[in-house]
Write the structure tokens for this entry.
Amino acid sequence: MTAQNHLPAPGSDWAFFLDVDGTLIDIAATPDDIAIDPSVLPTLAQLGEAAGGALALISGRPLSDLDRLFAPLNLPSAGLHGLERRNGEGKVFRPSKPDDGIKEIVDGMHEFARRTPGVLVEDKGFTAAIHFRGAPEEEIAVLRLAEGLLAAAGGDLHIQNGKMVVEIKPAGADKGSVIEAFMREFPFAGRNPVFIGDDATDEDGFAAVNRLGGHSIRVGCEAATTARWCVATVDELLAWLFAAPTAMQASAPA
Ligand SMILES: [Mg+2]
């Protein structure tokens, strides 16, 4: 199903869950090349305040990366597609140690990258990602590599496809389960969850907020998705988020 190309009217009881790359920031050639529009930090601060603190980042990046990018904000956040989470009270949840297979997988990815120009390996500790934005013709080879490394590593790992990236991560945690975890806690519980993302890794989050009776919004209207709404570009989304606090106030019960 494709999403509807307009956005719902923001409500005063909403809780916001926001993906980062491709949603709040245009995707760059490599994960380190991104630039945050200067309007994003004040927009998020105002939106979080309007939502009573119920605003969280839900990203594939590590938490440490999110904190660096969004400083001085210290938002409730989920990193590594839900494997790490800092809740509304600042408490951090993450696995005690990386899965044994991840290191071998990173080594295998590096070996492939050494003989494949344009391919970039990202060792995130708990997960391993290989980006082929610089060598799109290598997509099939990268997928085969990931499947081979996954089979050799065994364990409870799985492949997470993204935009020009393939990631291997522990099974279990995903963007949907982590949104559900936030929704059981203050200040999210009792609010109407809204998840905004752009990518295959966000489909679990869209499905979760659909199940919870909330709103799923995808940036990019071209692909089939479980999201119910879509917006064409990052800039359009940022304009809508900027205007949301005023709309939320207007919708609040008198
Ligand atoms: Mg994204």
In short: The chain has two domains: 14-94+173-251, 101-170. The chain has a mean pLDDT of 94. Helices lie at 40-50, 63-70, 101-114, 139-153, 175-183, 203-211, 234-251.
